[in-house]
Fold:
Amino acid sequence: MLIVAEDLTKSFKIPKRNAGIINVFKNLFHREYETINALDRVSFKINEGELVGYIGPNGAGKSTTIKILSGILTPDSGKCQVLGKVPWKERVEHLRNIGVVFGQRTQLWWDLPVIDSFELLRDIYKIHQNDYMKTKRINFYKKNRPDLEFF
Ligand SMILES: Nc1ncnc2c1ncn2[C@@H]1O[C@H](COP(=O)(O)OP(=O)(O)OP(=O)(O)O)[C@@H](O)[C@H]1O
Ligand SMILES: [Mg+2]
Structure:
């Protein structure tokens, strides 16, 4: 088993924000906190060679799970092993073995030229060059931006 998650649970404690100027002063002396249960006993197993997707609505806890798997966050309780290692305990060794890209909200990274984003996704998803070249978007750019160099 490559990845095992067992009853992963994580909550965040955040200060309650009350609107209004009076509350700003109140909050200076007395902070109220609320607890957000981001993960509630999440369990799954992933075998070698499996290609999986992890889907769910906004705030469902996807990123929190990935952060735990990659050793960025420690769960409140539960167990987890990736390639036989506990991510948050053997962080450095663990990071040698994995790759993680946080592509939040958009597939296009604004500080890269568009073509670089396409090429990165081509490589991630192992798209054959011929298929890649056939895509409409590339043809669109080739037609409309003859000044850009493609390969
Ligand atoms: N660092 C944090 N501090 C406080 N609350 C957090 C923190 N990180 C996540 N949360 C909360 O935990 C819950 C799960 O968040 P998470 O980012 O894991 O969801 P997600 O499934 O990745 O959502 P999205 O689809 O919007 O990326 C949310 O309610 C979120 O507000
Ligand atoms: Mg997320």
Summary: The chain has two domains: 3-102, 105-151. The two ends are 40 Å apart (CA to CA).
